[in-house]
Amino acid sequence: NVAGAIILGLKLDDPQINELRENKNFPVVVFDTSIGGNVNSVKTDNESGVLEVTSFLREMNHKKIGVITGHFKAQVSIERLYIFTNSLIGNNIEVYEGDFSKESGYKGAMELYSKGVSAIFAFSDLMALGAIEYFNEKNIDIPDKVSIIGFDNIPIGEIIKPGLSTVAHNKSEIAKQMLKLITDSSFGKNVKIKPELIKRDSVKKL
């Protein structure tokens, strides 16, 4: 007897996707993934967010940049990597495939730093925290030796030193639009919400 459903963390290989697409019983809203059919989606505008990151890194004169992606069963990983690499054509980009975990951020930082990157863009703040943990253990100064930027704007990013630069979801607007799609009994609509780049002390101008 629910009015609708909100789904978070949907993977592209989820066996229920076809069933969700054909659902006509009540509105379903998926966060950050568009799967078509009768399913609504509310997404952070990855293009807008990633282009702000690339513009910021250009402004800070970074030429060799490392990327720690999430796993590629997540639509956001595919979108963000495609936008990032296309925006920085001609730059030297190194890619490490993570899985959104802190551990993969740690391993990604170890590999990317060994390749001489001056900045790392992690597709989640949790992976950025893993990278920061690695650099702290190795006494590699952030941002003097390497700059880091994340995505999500989780609360700890503002507390740690140096403060983590990141892309912030507009959470209140996302929640508002999700509820609106349910209360309006919408099916098959897709909404994008513009994020905000938060500049803190983890990125240095070269």
Can you put this structure into words, describing what you see?
It is a single chain. With 206 residues, the chain is α/β, with parallel strands linked by helices. It folds into two domains: 5-44 and 169-194, no CATH class; 46-168, Response regulator (Rossmann fold), CATH 3.40.50.2300. Helices cover 37% and strands 22% of the residues. The protein contains seven helices and ten strands. It has a six-stranded mixed sheet with strand order 5-4-6-7-8-10, sandwiched between helices. A four-stranded parallel sheet has the order 1-2-3-9, covered by helices on one side. Strand 4, helix 3 and strand 5 form a beta-alpha-beta unit. The longest helix is centred in the N-terminal third of the chain and has 14 residues, at 46-59.
Quick overview of this protein structure:
The chain has helices at residues 17-22, 46-59, 75-87, 102-114, 125-137, 156-159, 171-183; strands at 5-7, 28-31, 40-44, 64-69, 92-97, 119-122, 147-152, 165-168, 190-193, 196-198. By secondary structure, it is an alpha/beta fold. α2 runs parallel beside α3 and α4 (102-114) packs across α5 (125-137).
